[in-house]
Amino acid sequence: MKVTIVGAGNVGATCADSIAYQGMASEVVLLDIKDGFAEGKALDMMQTATTLGFNTKITGTTSDYAKTADSDVVVITSGVARKPGMTREELIGINSGIVKSVANQLLTHSPDTVIVVVSNPMDTMTYLTLKVTGLPKNKVIGMGGALDSSRFKTYLSLALDKPANDIHGIVIGGHGDTTMIPLTRLATYNGIRISTILSAEELDKVAAATMVGGATLTKLLGTSAWYAPGASVAYLVNSILHDQKRIIPCSVMLDGEYGQSDICVGVPTIIGKNGWEKIIDLNLNDKESASFKKSASAVRTMNEALLGILK
User: Which of 15, 193, 258, 214 is closest to 116 using CA atoms?
Assistant: First the structure.
């Protein structure tokens, strides 16, 4: 199996490293527009193969999309970060042009691939990718909820002082500080509702920490995070490649589910070889439903910046 990752920056390179190290695919192609950058990252990773014990072939290329041919999954991480003074519309205008060009070039060589979108603003870029490529809706997935949920489970683990892998929790809604919805009511520790262990105040603190999880790391690091985002993408890619049918919250096109249509936003989905295969209904309560409606409205406002691009 073959995976292409467009963008050899921190997130893209970490994703490639995770996929190779865990033997998820036989080949990973890392593509970047910076001359020699992807080639250097790929060579560096390949030189760890004998010490780490993996056999995945990692290839780097500078903008040669022919080398991405016949990819089972392609991951788009390319785009620019929002700079001081840059408006939301300006960011979307720049990144939409990048994502649109990348997606169409990838499909020229891999028409049956599944596209995983990481570029920000993620929900809007997922919507754009689906619209401009004309792919079946199950073939385009935004990965944000996978990352947000991993952060949620980490903060629950810290609050409980229990192993993170014994904790289950999910974040839905838009992939943003004010739009994501950590579902504290449904979080469990080995089948036990965490709401019976932690107080409402403690759960509110966990939810608040989750929502600013990305901003917290940016403040600490001086740049965006990459280990958790890269690992979250690899986790999602693995479920596609090996048809694992994992339930992963992802940004996908809704057609009436959760009361929304013609929008890509985070909901729990079953992920397999065909991309996303089913949306899971969590039977949200009134408060959660209201939060989801508000989140979707914010994502729609963001999508308005695409109106001129999609004409």
Answer: 15
Q: How far apart are CA 247 and CA 282, in angstroms?
A: 12
Are the beta carbons of 11 and 229 closer than 8 angstroms? yes
Active-site entry in 109, 168, 175, 242:
175
pTM of the model: 0.95
Q: What is d(CA 89, CA 50) in angstroms, rounded to the nearest whole number? A: 47
CA 193 to chain centre: 27
pLDDT of the residue at 304 = 92
**Per-residue tokens: 195:** 């709401």
Q: Does position 31 have pLDDT exceeding 90, yes or no?
A: yes
Structure tokens at 123: 């929900």
User: Which fold is adopted by the domain 145-310?
Assistant: L-2-Hydroxyisocaproate Dehydrogenase; Chain A, domain 2 (3.90.110)
Determine the pLDDT at residue 223: 86
Confidence at residue 86, expressed as pLDDT on a 0 to 100 scale: 66
Q: Is 242 a catalytic residue?
A: no
Domain 2-142 in CATH: superfamily? NAD(P)-binding Rossmann-like Domain (3.40.50.720)
DSSP string over the chain: -EEEEE--SHHHHHHHHHHHHTT--SEEEEEESSTTHHHHHHHHHHTTHHHHT---EEEEEES-GGGGTT-SEEEE----PPPTT--HHHHHHHHHHHHHHHHHHHHHH-TTPEEEE-SSSHHHHHHHHHHHH---GGGEEE-HHHHHHHHHHHHHHHHHTS-GGGEE--EEE-SSTTTEEE-GGG-EETTEEGGGTS-HHHHHHHHHHHHTHHHHHHHHHSS---HHHHHHHHHHHHHHHTT--EEEEEEEEEESGGG-EEEEEEEEEEEETTEEEEEPP----HHHHHHHHHHHHHHHHHHGGGHHHH-
